[in-house]
Each structure stands twice: as structure tokens, then as C-alpha cells.
Design goal:
The chain is mainly alpha-helical. It has a single domain, classed as Cytochrome c/b562 (Four Helix Bundle (Hemerythrin (Met), subunit A)). Helix content is 77%, strand content 4%. It is built from 6 helices and 2 strands; from the N terminus they run αβαααααβ. Strands 1-2 form a two-stranded parallel sheet. α2 (33-58) packs antiparallel against α3 (62-73), α3 (62-73) packs antiparallel against α5 (92-118) and α5 (92-118) packs antiparallel against α6. The N and C termini lie far apart (42 Å). The chain binds heme C.
């Protein structure tokens, strides 16, 4: 197991060095400075929300974790985030990743509520990783100008 982990980590290191050598191949998105600030503020809150969700899951507070996910990242957060204003600046594939993230967060919220009854932490964590998968996917492809 230890050997496998070392192997995987070494592989990741080589991959990231190779990637860095190629320079920044992410697509640069242009949007007005105020919108960039707004988007970055949303992003920092997303990260904060993920951290809160993990803390709540660790404490077995599944319903509270569900609320954070739904209200801060899920479909219920779209209006508060001004998503429709920002979407116009994003290529379709980027918008789709954003939508997939909001949907995954709402799905996590339901699964976390269910876990409140079943105590199935493994399933809840799996659903949470579906959310962070979209963070990773979008960050790999896009940056702000
Ligand atoms: C639809 C695309 C997209 C999704 C989905 C997305 N992000 Fe981002 N995020 C961005 C872009 C673009 C930037 C700016 C990166 C840059 O310019 O280098 C960013 C920047 C950030 C930053 C830095 C903010 C700052 O102050 O500079 C954080 C933190 C962040 N994202 C967290 C998250 C988390 C956590 C998630 C998932 C819950 C997430 N993001 C999902 C596109 C996305």
C-alpha cells in the first residue's frame, strides 16, 4: 500500500512538473474587474463552504452539512451568486461545469440528509467528492485574465 502510494505520488509530481514546463494552458476568461472580484469572492465562499461541510460531516451533523451545501453551492445559491450575470462571460463548457457543480451540491444535500438517518458517511463523502470534482475540472481548464 505504502509502495503504491509512493508510486502514485511520484507519478503526480512528474505529471505536474511536465505540466508546469508547458506553461499555463488554461483558457483565460475576460470579464469586467467588478465581476472578477465578485466571482473570486464567490469562489472563496465555495472553499469555505466545503470546509464547513467537512467539519460538519466529521461531527455527524448531516442535516447542517446538507444546508450549507444547498444554500451556498447548490441550486438554491444561484440567485445569491449572480450566476446568470456571470454566465454570459463564460464559454458553454465552463458554464456546464458550473451547472454540474451546483447540481452535484444539491445531490449531496439530499444524500447527506439521508445519511442523517442511515449514518452512511462513506456515501456522503462520495457525493461530496462529486462536487469537488467540478471545482477541479473547471480550475484545470480556465482562469481569469
Ligand atoms: C465554472 C468554473 C469554476 C468552478 C466550477 C469552480 N471554480 Fe473556483 N475559480 C474559477 C476560476 C476561473 C478562478 C480564477 C482562477 C485564476 O484566475 O487563476 C477560480 C478561483 C478560485 C479560488 C481563488 C479565489 C481568489 O480569491 O483568487 C478559489 C479559492 C476557488 N476558485 C475555489 C473553488 C471551489 C472550492 C470550487 C468548488 C466548490 C470552485 N472554485 C469551483 C472557476 C471555477
Amino acid at each position: 500500500m505504502q509502495k503504491l502510494l509512493t508510486f502514485v505520488l511520484a507519478g503526480l509530481l512528474v505529471a505536474s512538473i511536465a505540466f508546469a514546463a508547458e506553461g499555463d494552458s488554461r483558457v483565460a476568461i475576460e470579464m469586467p474587474a467588478m465581476m472578477q472580484d465578485h466571482m473570486r469572492a464567490n469562489m472563496r465562499d465555495h472553499l469555505l463552504a466545503i470546509n464547513e461541510i467537512q467539519t460538519l460531516l466529521a461531527a455527524g451533523q448531516y442535516d447542517a452539512a446538507a444546508d450549507v451545501a444547498e444554500n451556498r453551492i447548490g441550486m438554491s445559491s444561484l440567485v445569491a451568486h449572480g450566476a446568470s450575470h456571470m454566465a454570459g462571460f463564460m464559454p458553454q463548457a465552463m458554464q456546464d461545469t458550473g451547472t454540474a457543480m451546483h447540481q452535484a451540491a444539491s445531490r449531496f444535500a439530499v444524500i447527506s440528509q439521508e445519511a442523517g438517518v442511515t449514518r452512511d458517511l462513506t456515501r456522503a463523502l462520495g457525493a461530496l467528492s462529486q462536487v469537488t470534482q467540478q471545482c477541479v475540472a473547471c480550475h484545470a481548464g480556465y482562469r481569469l485574465k
